[in-house]
Amino acid sequence: MPSVIQDAENRPQRFNRQRGITGVQMIVNESGGIPNRLFFRLFQTGNILQRQVQNEMGISAVQWAVLGALSREGFEDGTSFNQLKEYLYVSRQNLDGVLKRMERDGHVVRIPDPQDRRARLVVLTESGRLFWDRLQDSIAEFYRQAMQGMSFDDGVSLLHLLKKLQHELIDISLESTIPEK
After folding, report:
1. For residues 60 and 105, is the Cβ–Cβ distance under 8 A?
2. Is the torsion defined by CA of 70, 76, 159, 56 positive or negative?
């Protein structure tokens, strides 16, 4: 008796020797199923984003994110390294290396925090702001091309779902399920 599964439109799908296994069956039968495919797609999407940003704009995706974060209204006087690290969800080492390159290029400076002499603020320079402003047309076109196959509602749904996934990821704790060495 052939197994029956539901496809995306809720139509029964059966194995067909001439067609082989349907795409839906492959997803259901793969190790890890949908969650595994989803997280692998997120991994691939992140890597594609990194490569395309570098190829098309000549900066890394993290540099792009730093420029965007520092150019937000209310951040004209900069932000602490730790706040920037937490906002971008990047490692200390990764952010430090990126900021060193951006300092070398004249896009950011690190200055003493007037509120806390031990801390330093990351500030977008005038050159960095001009660079960011010049990128805006390219960024808009990048977004347009990346989203051209999606409707407005698709984009809103994806944004909503990614935000939900972010919140769930932040709350993960595997301490009780990791086997001892």
Report:
1. no
2. negative
Both tokens of residue 137?
């047309």
Residue 23 and residue 59 in contact, taking contact as beta carbons nearer than 8 Å? no
Q: How far is CA 170 from the centre of its chain?
A: 14
Query: With contact defined as beta carbons under 8 Å apart, do 123 and 97 qualify?
Result: no
The distance between the two most distant Cα atoms of the chain, rounded to a whole number of Å, is: 74
> What's the pLDDT tens digit per position in 85-103?
999 999 999 999 999 999 9
Cα angle 44, 97, 112 (rounded to 5 degrees) comes to 135
Q: What is the pTM of this model?
A: 0.75
Residue with tokens 């690290």: 85
Euclidean distance between CA atoms 94 and 86, whole angstroms: 12
pLDDT surpasses 90 at 53? yes
pLDDT value of position 11: 43
Residues in CB range of 20: below 8 A, 6 or more apart: none
Q: Do 103 and 81 form a contact (C-beta atoms < 8 A)? A: no
For residue 52, give the nearest of 158, 150, 142 by alpha carbon.
Answer: 142
